[in-house]
């Protein structure tokens, strides 16, 4: 399977268009995968991946709000009909801004949560590199309580599979986090999950169109 990729960079967001067939060879719906806007965790350079910290704290930064202002003012994708989002504060705030803009309801979807980074919680985000190096060796590894790449891929893909079973000919926006989205895209491409960091990193407030 060879995806048709188009990458276009803008000031605060990026568009990447990919075609990934579903199980029967074609998607029933159109999907927009969105990474949350720049967050307070990004601003502080901290890993915030647990519900204990992420559900009620570390929402969008002022930069993140500005990114969403620009994104919505220059929206160039299909109008979403449904919005599902991770229940972390930064993704909930991102989804709420988009929903308000289009006059849509929101659906909380915990399976779209941030990847849990175990013992690294609250530490410097420079330590992500340690986890990614281990991911490249074994995508099923759970060292230090870190959620395995394979587990992230399974829960993320399950959301799309469920939408495919329930709906048809809709544009569905899924608001999630950087690592989970890159893992999902790697899985949909049919590439080895150990290669998920070889993809172009998804910028805050970026949208990837399937």
TrEMBL record:
The organism encoding this protein is: Halomonas halophila
**Which CDD domains does this chain map to?**
HP_PGM_like (cd07067)
Which protein, by its recorded name, is this?
A: Phosphoglycerate mutase
Highest taxon of source: Bacteria
Q: Which InterPro entries match?
A: His_Pase_superF_clade-1, His_PPase_superfam
């Amino acid at each position: 399977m060879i995806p048709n990729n188009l990458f276009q960079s803008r000031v605060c967001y990026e568009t990447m268009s990919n075609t990934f067939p579903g199980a029967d060879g074609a998607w029933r719906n159109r999907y927009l995968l969105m990474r949350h806007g720049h967050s307070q965790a990004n601003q502080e350079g901290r890993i915030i991946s647990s519900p204990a910290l992420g559900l009620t704290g570390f929402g969008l930064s002022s930069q993140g709000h500005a990114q969403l202002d620009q994104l919505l003012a220059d929206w160039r994708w299909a109008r979403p009909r449904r919005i599902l989002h991770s229940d972390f504060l930064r993704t909930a705030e991102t989804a709420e801004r988009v929903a308000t803009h289009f006059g849509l309801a929101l659906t909380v979807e915990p399976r779209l949560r941030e990847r849990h980074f175990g013992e690294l919680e609250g530490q410097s985000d420079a330590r992500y590199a340690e986890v990614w190096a281990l991911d490249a060796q074994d995508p099923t590894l759970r060292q230090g309580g870190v959620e395995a790449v394979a587990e992230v891929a399974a829960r993320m893909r399950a959301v799309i599979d469920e939408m495919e079973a329930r709906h048809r000919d809709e544009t569905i926006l899924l608001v999630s986090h950087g690592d989970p989205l890159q893992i999902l895209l790697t899985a949909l491409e049919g590439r080895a999950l150990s290669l998920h960091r070889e993809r172009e990193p998804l910028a805050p407030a970026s949208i990837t169109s399937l």
